[in-house]
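Attaching the record inline, Q. Sequence:
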Amino acid sequence: MTIAFIALVCLGLTLVPMTHIPAETIGKPTLKAHPGFMITRGMQVTMSCEGTSRAQEYYLCKEGSPDPWQRQSSMVPRNKAEFFFPSIQQNHAGRYHCYYQTHVGWSENSDSLDLMVTGLYRKPHLSVLSSPVVRLGENVTLQCVSQLGYDGFVLTKEESQKLSLIRDSQYIYSNGQFRALFYVGPVTSRQRRTFRCYGYFMSKPQVWSEPSDPQELLVSGVLEITSQPQNVSEDKTASQSQDHTMENLICMCLSGLILTVLGILLFDACCSQRRMLKAAYR
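Structure, as predicted:
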């Protein structure tokens, strides 16, 4: 009975075990992959199933497999178990879930986790249709192209290793290539963005090609927006400086003229006074 139940759970069939047990007694575990869900072939990966401290054993299942891939006693503390894969290969790609057993029954299945294995096929080429230099608020079209007849392409952001967009491939009769167009934007961040794309076949959707070379988007227009008021301010400062220089020159000329006139008047007054003194002595 126990073996049959485990097989049904791994195949994704839903059973309600021990209905007399309250639902809150056995919770739903959480399944995670470290270092991430996208793993290059040959790398190590650890899948952790976190449940409750009352768990006795944890089970890791792959969709389509009749038996658990791995079975492990709970760790200390007993709220989780870790399933280690020393070298990921193509057959490890797929959809996984986990569950655990306590002394009173079985837990629900965790949410599914898709493990993508990359590096199996030739890498595609990623490019920007217009220019890799974009302005804030602008929409961008990225093109992923390959000579191989991939059924679809995937675009990812390299910074966060997050799945961004999935597109079916289109056959281009003019050059015999397969491609997909990805529309990104509007660009609202000043940070640089780096993208890669992968190709895959529908027969094995979790097995991807080697990643394309990175395509970086550079955001322009930021310096122009911030520098424009600065240039206006500099022009105003230069203009004001020129005005003050002209005013100073005019003031200096007027002062010199006034001093000259005063000097002439003072000289004439002195001469007149001398003439009056000479006339008086006569």
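The first strand starts at residue 30 and ends at 34. Residues 29 and 51 are 4 Å apart (CA to CA).

More tomorrow.
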